[in-house]
Write a structure and sequence with these properties.
homodimer, 2 domains, seven-stranded mixed sheet, four-stranded mixed sheet, 14 strands, about 25% strand
Chain lengths: ~350, ~350
């Protein structure tokens, strides 16, 4: 018996589900390290430190794009949500909602990417669930991951801890993920294809908070809604004004080109391998230097500052010396970017 | 501005997403207890005991059925998965995948049910995520919940701890959930409508393991694949034969009627508020009496026993004294039951 595409019975919880799990979803399990069949994973004692807990669902379309795929996103996204609260990601859950008719080869490729990215991040997938919906009630594959991490420093960085005088740092080029997905979706023929930046940032961000401790006030991964939304989240949670220097923000020319072509503001375009860092001004230069030595931070730059304000505001200081208010995005300009 | 149905912008991560969260998904949040906007929840120290971690996605169709709805299922299902490993459920995550066009009133009703069931179970929803897919790429509402619980006893009950000589106990009537959903889906006109048993069992099962400790060897909620699959899971994990006494299994006549009408074996029909208990034979009578005093265990009964075997087997001792092998279900007979 062989199977090449998914049927509803694969989600029925019987032996077809078991076989799918064994052969496709968790194929790499070594004999003698069979995952417990119990309904919950029992975790080793994580003595020391509080825990962080987060969840994210991934519905990106298409499933594969230059530089990544839904599986890489699903691991990196949740790992990054833990890392930005100063936590070391330890355990992930994996919930798959699959559409009848999905090619098994496609699912295999997604699962391989999930496991490879989990290895890269050093997290363990300890529990999972698989459901199948009828053709036309899904879109190939939706993934939910939830994650548990151990908080490394107290107080942990928080969106609410930005203070007037703090520095704003961005760890790299803006808009790569959103531009890569949009270009693939619109079938743009590009001379130099843009690749998504999707990546787990936990090693870099964990090392950062361990090195600089309480000087790191806030961390944020600028995903849906891009840098504009990330800054609004910080501005609101801390009731401050955030000033970004347009000249200091880095955007690849080809990403800017895609944004211009499609009419998007790169500040609102999603990133999946970048972080915004708010830290004490005195530490800013050392933080930038530290980030530039990290795999995912070579293009880190000081990008602005936090200013006192009685209401949350985000302002862009333009290259020609003007100022413009950056509006809070209403919603992703293109849906299903992550 | 008012809104009556869901648009793609509600999933874009901008201010429309925020408003949806505030007004519909987490409406009951009291001033001064605003949930942190950070990307992960920070959990209070759960000192003492290991943690259990689980996840489940819910895709039941229809969203509402007699006795329950997808929101109640989503909380009860994950709570029960924690309870069957002997853990006290503490925290849930909530991941929503919504379809464009979903009526806001429907979403409100689902979310109210989620919060009411979480209150009933005594668990806290501490983190969440909302995505929206285009019309025709979902089916109203899919829900993922992940849960964290504290393990109450060591060693925790496990599917692998059933031993020859143990007693098999079922906490109540079989097949209520599956029959209720199927009857609603097939629009069967019934004199006495069947209601789903969907319920959080954590209070009953937590009290059980605290009362009987290591005498409780295995617990299992017989959901997809019903009692047949639950017994196969235990038989395989423990390499034992499970003997069920047909005369001791309880089924409502109207549930049996629906199964007969639609051609289903009630042993394979899903339950969402029942548990299978494997315990030391010496404790069996006391366990049944204990369960019968619990809200969700009034019809608990001794339903069989564990027998030595060199291969996993599930056997039904029929009313007329015969024996039949109970096959492992291939997959749910009707998809999308939970």
């Amino acid at each position: 018996m062989s199977f090449t595409s998914l049927t509803l019975a694969h989600g029925g919880g019987g032996f077809r589900t078991e076989r799918l799990l064994r052969e496709v979803i968790f194929p790499g399990v070594r004999p003698g390290r069979k995952p417990a069949m119990d309904d919950s994973a029992i975790l080793p004692d994580t003595a020391g430190g509080r825990l962080a807990f987060t969840t994210d669902s991934f519905i990106v379309s298409p499933l594969f794009f230059p530089g990544g795929d839904i599986g890489r996103l699903a691991v990196a996204g949740t790992v990054n949500d833990l890392a930005v609260v100063g936590a070391k990601p330890l355990y992930l859950s994996l919930g798959l909602i699959l559409e009848e008719g999905l090619a098994i080869e496609t699912l295999k490729a997604v699962c391989e990417s999930i496991h490879a990215t989990a290895d890269e991040a050093g997290v363990e997938i300890v529990t999972g669930d698989t459901k199948v919906v009828e053709r036309g009630k899904g879109d190939g594959c939706y993934i939910n991951t939830a994650g548990i991490g151990r908080v490394l420093i107290e107080p942990p960085p928080s969106l609410s801890r930005a203070r007037p005088g703090d520095a704003l740092i961005v760890t790299g080029m803006l808009g790569d993920h959103g531009a890569a997905v949009m270009a693939r979706r619109e079938s743009l023929a590009l001379d130099s294809p843009v690749r998504s930046d999707a990546a787990p940032l936990n090693r870099m961000l964990n090392a950062l908070v361990e090195q600089f401790g309480p000087a790191i006030h806030a961390l944020k991964d600028p995903t849906r809604g891009g840098l504009a939304m990330a800054c609004h989240d910080i501005a609101e949670a801390s009731t401050v004004q955030i000033e970004m220097d347009e000249a200091a923000l880095r955007v690849r020319p080809e990403v800017q080109g895609i944004c211009d072509l499609l009419g998007f503001d790169v500040l609102e375009v999603a990133n999946e391998g970048k972080a915004v860092v708010v830290c004490e001004a005195a530490a800013a230069r050392a933080v930038v230097e530290f980030l530039r030595r990290c795999d995912h931070g070579h293009q880190a730059s000081l990008a602005g500052r936090i200013v006192e304000s009685d209401q949350p505001l985000v302002v862009l200081k333009t290259r020609i010396g003007g100022e413009r208010l950056v509006a809070k995005p209403a919603g992703e300009i293109l849906p299903r970017i992550c």
